[in-house]
Amino acid sequence: MAAKNGKRWNHNIHYHPRILREVPDGAQRALDVGCGEGMLARALRQAVPHVTGIDRDAPSIDQAREHRDDVDYVLGDFLTHPFEPASFDVVASVATLHHMDATAGLTRMRDLLRPGGVLAIVGLAQSTLPNDLPRDLAGIVVGAFHRAMKGHWEHPSPMVWPPPVTYAQMRALAAEMLPGSRYRHHLLFRYSITWRKPQG
User: What class of enzyme is it (predicted)?
Assistant: First the structure.
C-alpha cells in the first residue's frame, strides 16, 4: 500500500522523531548508518550542517543521490569504510544493526563518536516467548491501526529476517558496551538505544 496524503509511514519511519530528538545542540557532523534511500539523512540535515549517509546497497544509494540535497551519500561497508575516529557528533542507525555483528557494529559506532557526541539507534530483534507475547499482540493491533490511517511505504533496501539477537540480548549488550545508555523496547517491534559518549 502506498503512503497516504503524500507522507510515508512504516514501522521504521515511525521512530525517526525519536532519533531526531537526540541530536545535541551545536552538532556539526552526523552519520546515518545504513541510510537506504536517505530519508533519515535528509531529516538530520535539517538540524546538522554536515551529514553523511552510508549504505552497502547500491540501488538504495542511487535513489538517495537522486534527491537535491547536500548530504554525502557513501556506497560502502560501515564497518570498514575509512572514517576518521571520533569524527561525528551524532551517529544514527535505524533498522541496520541486525544486518551486521552487533558487537562489531556498536564498537564502530562508539569509536566514531566525538566525546560528548550522541549515539541513537532504533533496531529490530527477536521476541522471546512467552515474555514478549503481550507486547507483540498489542503491537499488531496498533500497527494495523497506523497502516489503516497512514498507509504503508515499503522501503527499497534489502531485508534480513529473523534478526540474529533477542531484545534481552540487545539490552544486555548495550548495558555492557555503552555504560549509562538508555534502552527501550517499543510497541511497534523495535527497540531504541541512546547514549552520550563521555567527555575526556
Answer: transferase
